[in-house]
């Protein structure tokens, strides 16, 4: 697939010998929000702001990360940073010769990709550039919206919910297909709202059966993330097995992804841990048991958990491999237990304002990500390949942002979820509950932890996509054998 403008920019920026670049960008293209978030998925962090902010980001940068310190004046940097960095100029003219730059610097990235792919030999003025952009937009105009019959869907769903016991696996798959059908229409918000009664039934299911799910036998298949390793060790101990974890992959996103993967042998639905934060749920995957609250999320700790688990099963350390984002598919002959984590889809989720945004970003991720070739290579090397995630996501609506002392002591878990709070002090926890009685029916509590059951969020935004609560779209997740 041809690379777009962002990929070319990434390639050029990474060719510099220095991992810290002082960038003067007069056209301000690199300040665009979607450009910032996309560059971050490629390991390039763009930093704007005061010298103090530059200092903090400079000192805390990752070893494999390229840091772009952005300024309109390349002399406006701290002296010691200047000594270790490379100063460069960035200008869209480098990539778009022949176009009127002020007219294109704010247009959609998808349109820029088209302009970039069709090199302009004769220079266009402002009017000619704008006319060309209009023609491209007309050609890309979507077909008229096809109505999704929500009442008929809800009627069918209600009939499924009348059958006892409710088959939540089938309900999840049915809802995921409905979300996907409506996601690019004006009906998706209506659909999510209409799932209220279904989610209420799911919350009752959590009350009555979640504890049993946590204690379930995994020999025939895991019912929850903490049982995945038990299932693999019970059935594949003597075989080559690879576990691919895509951070934040909702079941409806898997419905998009599976068309780009080899055929699935089985498509099961399992539970994330509650609350559905990475700190707990992904830890549960790699620990293979109940997560610990004092654990700190990170690739090094995850790798340690993965290796320790298999070593207790008699597997030699040289036979175990863990990769996080950077995938090493060389010398797989001796590897029998391989874990791979893709985290950048979760970054896209947190940057989305609604499901339509997230679908666009998911499709972009699938096209540029190497997950197909990774799975294909693993299969060719004799691995049984399993695909899962730590949690799904929900298009939530804002209740309001936290105020004053409501924010105190809420970062204990390290979670950035806007649907989960974990207070360090009991009085702060009790204070929040007492002062917000209108949230009573929306919240679940556990010790000093608070998480949301419906589609609200601790945010002032109209809509956002996040996770950390107990909504069925966050909790019911894919466990796939390829």
In words, what does this structure look like?
The strands form 4 sheets. The protein has a 6-stranded mixed sheet with strand order 6-16-9-5-8-7, with helices on both faces. The protein is of the alpha/beta class and 482 residues long. α9 (168-182) packs across α13, α14 (278-287) packs parallel to α15 and α16 runs antiparallel to α17 (355-368). It is built from 20 helices and 16 strands. The two termini are 24 Å apart.
Can I get a quick summary?
The protein is an alpha/beta fold and 482 residues long.
Topology, element by element:
Blueprint: H1 5-14, E1 20-24, H2 33-41, E2 44-47, H3 51-60, E3 66-71, H4 79-84, E4 86-89, H5 101-104, H6 109-117, H7 126-139, H8 150-161, H9 168-182, H10 188-194, H11 196-214, H12 228-236, E5 241-246, H13 251-257, E6 266-271, H14 278-287, H15 299-312, E7 320-324, E8 337-342, H16 344-350, H17 355-368, H18 371-380, E9 384-388, E10 394-398, E11 420-422, H19 426-435, E12 443-446, E13 449-452, E14 456-457, E15 463-466, H20 472-475, E16 476-481
Parallel strand pairs: 1-3, 1-4, 2-3, 5-8, 5-9, 7-8, 10-14
Antiparallel strand pairs: 6-16, 9-16, 10-15, 11-13, 12-13
